[in-house]
Amino acid sequence: MAEPSTAPPAGPRDDAALDDDAAQRGELVIKERAVVKIAVAAALQVPGVVKQSGGLSRLTGRELPRADVSTGADAVAINLYIAVQWPCHLDLLNRRLRAQVHRQVEQMTGMPVIELNIVVVGTESAAPEDSGADSLYSEQGDPAVPPLPVAPIRPRTPRATPAAVPAAIIVAVAALGLAVVAARELLIMRGTFANAPWIRNTAQWLGRLHWSDWIVPVAVAAIVLGIVLIVAALKPRPRTHLPLAVGDTPIVWLRPTDLARNSSSHANTVPGVLSAHTTVDRKHVTVRVVRTESTPAADVAISVREAVEPTLSLLGTSPELRVQVKP
């Protein structure tokens, strides 16, 4: 009869023994791209951080959020590039984002984040139903933070197309023509078709060229053309619209044509005015009206001025209003 075994029953092994066995079997290596995915996923969990991509962003790596990660022996440094839903409180978003990324990276990798740089490189307008969301303006567990006053931002004034655009188009067409000529020369050199080479013949003609009377006007024309192109490139673009403002901040831009039509429309409402025509330039708004014979010209001029001036007072500029009355 076999004796009963005296071996201890199978049970959970000591944690220290498990650690020793794991150390003997190998090591754990965490690639930087794994930390990148953890950081990006953690960033997207924070309200206010949005995913932004378009076009070739997937191929060029410009999709947001994205991260650059540097791992050391026992620590991680991260540069995190994000797009945010606007408007938002960046200070609250910064604290929540840092807490989330630190917590996720440390829990999943076991390595502390010693440096986290957050760069906001894109914005996206909030949907109307999300514009008042408390999650964008308050912290979890904290009382709601009152909205901060936002300073008005002066938008850019609409301006005309740069004067250098025609020159740029000419240069672009010339570059395309040069590419076609170069391709033709290559095909001739490879024997694809037989024709006289343009570049070689032109170079030989220039090599045999001596002084001629036509060189002087051509040189002068080249100098003038160069000066014209430089002036066109440096010339500031003129404004194409007039700012209509409340206070110091423009809210609407009007074309001079729109302002002229608006002024004529107000002038036509004046009693005694048969017709009105307005011209607008940078310094003057001229309203020409035709009155009825029974209405005094002075009264018509005063009434037209009173009808048109309220609109002109909202302009960011101060053009002079001139009223011309014709019988």
Derived from helix and strand composition plus strand pairing, the structural class reads alpha/beta
Envelope shape: flat
**Rg, Cα atoms, Å:** 37 Å
* Number of extended strands: 9
Mean pLDDT: 78
What proportion of the residues is helical, as a percent range?
40-55%
What does the main sheet amount to? 4 strands, mixed
Number of helices, counting only DSSP H or I runs of 4 residues or more: 9
Show unreliable segments: 1-5, 131-153
Give, in order, the helices and strands: HHEHEEHEHHHEEHEEHE
Taken as a percent bin, the fraction of beta residues is 15-25%
First-to-last CA distance: 139 Å
SSE topology:
Blueprint: H1 15-25, H2 32-44, E1 49-50, H3 57-60, E2 66-71, E3 76-86, H4 90-109, E4 113-125, H5 165-189, H6 198-207, H7 215-234, E5 242-246, E6 249-254, H8 256-268, E7 273-280, E8 284-291, H9 297-312, E9 320-326
Parallel strand pairs: 3-4, 8-9
Antiparallel strand pairs: 1-3, 2-3, 5-6, 7-8
